[in-house]
Amino acid sequence: MHEYLRLGVNIDHVATVRNARGVGYPDPVRAALVAAATGADGITAHLREDRRHITDDDIARLMAELTIPLNLEMAATDEMLGIALAHRPHAACIVPEKREERTTEGGLDAAGMHNHLAPMVRELKGANIRVSLFVEPDPRQIEAALRLGVPVIELHTGAYAELTDEARAAELRRLQDAAALAVKNGIEVHAGHGLTLDNVAPIAAIPQVKELNIGHALIADAIFMGLGGAVTAMRAAMDAAR
Ligand code: PXP
After folding, report:
1. What is the DSSP secondary-structure string of 124-153?
2. Rounded distance, CA 179 to CA 173, Å?
3. What pTM value is reported for the model?
4. Which of 3, 38, 131, 192 to pair with 235, CA 20 to 30 A apart?
């Protein structure tokens, strides 16, 4: 039996549906409260530079109304740094938004962006915000995270989710190795992107992983099961794999 695995529910796509109509519903904050009541350990929201889903007001309301931790996903920009420092969420996960900020596979190029990220990481840590970097399961990125002094990385599971058969098995081994390397170096490991009820088990079974952040599949399942049902089912699948 491994340590408890935390579930962070990403509510971005509730805001995507709301914004498609330009009305006030469905409300992502209401979704966050339902998720919290049905098994989420934290809420994740990505305030994108173009505000295509979550808005500044959503972040303010999440900070005011949530009783579980908020993980703010943010681009490495001065604007987002200012917003994070103003709200002081429990955690901030730095993610790539522009092509040139990504590694070939899609995580943040923490190695290539060291000089840009270092002062930002320092300021977030100084404000007691738990900083994480969303990176590929690549030893170079983990070494870069170590040099930057971040307490947490989130491993990008997007490639794992898209691949099949042998290629997926190989990607799973990369994730397992990356998780072990990070924890050996004192970095906490989270994982996410593209995880579903069907593919979550092998990732949830990686003993070093402490948290999964899941959005799209939960909001998709919510159409058929209700959001509470979708969160409960994901929680059960994660616990069973543990
Ligand atoms: N983790 C991070 C850093 C993300 O940016 C996202 C959203 O793209 C997720 C997890 C959740 O991914 P998904 O919506 O595919 O579950």
Report:
1. HHHTT-EEEEEE-S-HHHHHHHHHHT-SEE
2. 10
3. 0.97
4. 131
Domain ranges in the chain are 6-241
CA of 71 to the centre of ligand 1 (A): 12
Under 8 Å between Cβ of 138 and 178: yes
**Ligand 1 neighbour 96 (Cβ under 6 A):** no
Catalytic residue numbers, as ranges = 46, 73, 193
CATH no. of 6-241: 3.20.20.70
Kindly give the distance from the C-alpha atom of residue 5 to the centroid of ligand 1, in angstroms, as a whole number.
17
pLDDT in 10s for each residue of the chain, 242 residues: 579 999 999 999 999 999 999 999 999 999 999 999 999 999 999 999 999 999 999 999 999 999 999 999 999 999 999 999 999 999 999 999 999 999 888 999 999 999 999 999 999 999 999 999 999 999 999 999 999 999 999 999 999 999 999 999 999 999 999 999 999 999 999 999 999 999 999 999 999 999 999 999 999 999 999 999 999 999 999 999 99
